[in-house]
Amino acid sequence: MPHTTHRPPASPLTVLAALILGVCVIQVANGILQILLPLRLAEAAAPPLVVGAVASAYSVGFVLGCWAAPWMIRRVGGVWSFAAFGLLAAAATLLLNLLPDAQAWVGLRLLMGVSYVGMLTVAESGLATLSPPGSRGSVFSLYMIACKVAVIGGQMLLASPNLSALWLTVLAAGCYGLSLVPVAVIRPPASAAPKGPAPSPWQYVRRAPVAFAGCLTVGLCNTAVTGIGPAWLAGLALPAAGVALIMSGIQVGSVVLQWPIGRVSDRHDRRLVIFAVSAVATLAAFLIAAFANPPGGAAPQTVLLGLFTLWGSAALSLYAICVAHANDHVTVEETVPLASALLLAWALGAALGPLLATAAMEWFGHDALFVYVGVVSGGLTLFAGLRRLISGPFRAEP
After folding, report:
1. Most exposed of 130, 317, 325, 389 (fewest Cβ within 10 Å)?
2. How many CA atoms lie within 13 A of 314 on its CB side?
3. What does the alpha-carbon distance between residue 89 and residue 370 come to, in Å, rounded to a whole number?
4. Which residues form the signal peptide (predicted)?
């Protein structure tokens, strides 16, 4: 019998790097599909109802995945769950080419939503488990920066004249499959998988209400701006190049300030950081609403670019701080159901945000988009400030 050696578990830093790398490869696929699928539906002249159903199915799958992921992880563990969800996402992506009927894509996007949140639950619970409280904000901030850069990289692949829609879809499926490699080859430390029946998300909401309110607010506001913002800017008679430049400012601002904000949260009460960051997002949103259509005419493009960059630097940096704050209040055994509960809060907000924003625009006019965003993020600012005053200071031990 051949002699076998037992390798020691990989170091926490190695596991963290593997998890972040795996999710980055997933985000490249997401960046491709976020633009490619709407374009293919438009080329096929799919009815608006079908287009909306395809988009909604992904959100529905995301919500379902928040319940399925903890169930799967309890039974087979994190690495095997990540592999199962990744292969399911790869298969569903390949079937987009084999089943070109737009109506069939509704079911495929639902499966992809379930798979995506399953992989994120494994990754984010692993990040929370392995990152010390004194650096958790920094770790999640670096994770978010890497994900944003990966999404942008995936979107840039669509500019290549050598990649057809068929090959882009195959490439996205390949990315889902390749994401398994860094996660599968590591030997993570033995983790305490959740046992027994799945806990209610409400118990975590009671422990860290500001974190859950923040994740919900991120879903309600950020998806509304990223989804409706380009059309809102086009309504200001801006050229297409100007719209693209201003929208890119959102991502640039968040990438630049995400890590510094995370470091500050590691040194101070994270609720104070959430309060300050959401206050900046609120101010920027109301300034955008005020300067979009001033009495003398539309605001200069440079002014809008600066305000959108300011808004993005705050609003798109909130999620990482909220996740770090919530994980400061749970044990290692609870990181998996907590990750799922936080993603569920975000998913509910993401599903409702564009609907509420467009309803506000329908009732109060074109400029109501950023008034809506300012009101919602202002509510988070007030809530975070009140919770800090009522419950007193709190900072996780390094």
Report:
1. 389
2. 26
3. 35
4. none
Return d(Cα 108, Cα 85) in angstroms, integer. Answer: 13
How is 306-354 classified by DSSP, letter by letter?
HHHHHHHHHHTTHHHHHHHHHHTTS-GGGHHHHHHHHHHHHHHHHHHHH
Burial 302-333 (b: 16+ CB within 10 A, else e): eebbbbbbbbbbbbbbbbbbbbbbbbbebeee
d(CA 211, CA 274): 9
Q: What is the mean pLDDT of each successive set of 10 residues along the chain, which is 398 residues long?
A: 51 83 92 80 72 77 85 84 92 88 84 91 86 86 90 79 80 92 70 54 81 94 83 78 80 86 89 95 94 65 89 93 90 83 88 85 85 95 92 63
Give the DSSP letter of residue 298.
S
Quote the CA–CA distance of 315 and 69 in Å, as a whole number.
27
Burial 4-38 (b: 16+ CB within 10 A, else e): eeeeeebeeeebbebbbbbbbbbbbbbbbbbebbe
Rounded Cα–Cα distance for residues 381 and 388 (Å): 11
- For 161, the 3-state DSSP assignment is coil
Which of these, 28, 27, 50, 29, lies nearest to 38 by C-alpha position? 50
Q: What is the DSSP letter of 131?
A: S
Rounded distance between C-alpha atoms, residue 279 and residue 377, angstroms: 7
The 10s digit of each residue's pLDDT in 301-340 is 888 889 999 999 999 999 999 999 998 888 887 888 888 8
What would the CATH number be for the domain defined by 12-185?
1.20.1250.20
pTM of the model: 0.82
Residues of the chain with CATH 1.20.1250.20: 12-185, 201-391
201-391 under CATH 1.20.1250.20, yes or no: yes
